Amino acid sequence: MKPLNVEDIRNYFIEELKNERFTTDKTGQRTIEMLGSSFIASEPAIFGTPNEEYIEREIDWYISGSTNINDIYGDDRDPPAAWVYSANRYGSINSNYGKLIFDYKYYSQYDNVLNELALNKDTRRASMVYQRPSIWTEYNEDDKNDFICTNAVTYYIRDDKLHAVVQMRSNDVVFGYKNDYAWQSYVLAQLLKDLNAHRQADKDSGYGVIGQEDFTAGDITWQVQNLHVYERHFDLVK
């Protein structure tokens, strides 16, 4: 069966808006939802245009491992409203994605995945787990509101291409998808670079197979339990 693509998802939300099929969120705002979506994420935006300047700041912040939103822009400007809503009064959050996959506290998941793929290119367990059971007690501590949105990302090498399957609990089509897609694209590119460097080192040491070509980037499959557009963004659904 041919997988859905971004245009299919776009058309779904256009039709839902046209037919006024809405749900209501906890704030009373109308919302268009798609439950259990799965599609090939081949475009950086579904609706709207990515904010490249912000995306660069957010990726740098993720890489820094800081869990304080005031470090996104530093003294240049206030952090984005969505992060302010998620943070406690000190600016602390749970969802620094770089910390979750790179930090030793969370078991150095990036390194584990890199090593797993390097040892067994047919593996099915090259997973970086973002969510955690303790989120039930951590999401609202000190008045935070940050229940991590990404559950896990698993990487596969098939036909010498590195693919990613992103599994999310919740994803806002407008702001969330654009920024999350940028992050997952960054991680995939970095993992591909490191994996090929690892492969070259093996060749140089005599352990690798001479003549093997580098792996190339494959698909990012986007799986979301609840993909949604808020009423304040209905004007972008076109």
How does this model look, in words?
This protein is α/β, with parallel strands linked by helices and 238 residues long. 35% of the residues lie in helices and 22% in strands. The protein has seven helices and eight strands. The protein has helices at residues 6-18, 52-64, 81-86, 97-102, 109-119, 135-138, 175-205, and strands spanning 4-5, 23-24, 30-40, 127-129, 150-158, 161-168, 171-172, 216-230. Helix 5 packs across helix 7 (175-205). It is globular, with a radius of gyration of 19 Å.
Brief descriptors of the model:
238 residues, Thymidylate Synthase, Chain A, eight-stranded mixed beta sheet, 7 helices, globular
Number of helices: 7
C-alpha geometry: globular
> Which blocks of ≥5 consecutive residues have pLDDT under 50?
none
Structural class: alpha/beta
Tell me, rounded to a whole number, the average pLDDT. Answer: 95
CATH class: Alpha Beta
Largest sheet: 8 strands, mixed
CATH topology grouping: Thymidylate Synthase, Chain A
Level-2 CATH architecture: 2-Layer Sandwich
Order of helices and strands: EHEEHHHHEHEEEHE
The tally of beta strands, per DSSP, is 8
- Determine the strand fraction and express it as a percent band: 15-25%
Count of domain modules: 1
Helices and strands, with pairings:
Elements: E1 4-5, H1 6-18, E2 23-24, E3 30-40, H2 52-64, H3 81-86, H4 97-102, H5 109-119, E4 127-129, H6 135-138, E5 150-158, E6 161-168, E7 171-172, H7 175-205, E8 216-230
Parallel strand pairs: 1-3, 6-8, 7-8
Antiparallel strand pairs: 2-3, 3-8, 4-5, 5-6
Helix pairs in contact: 5-7
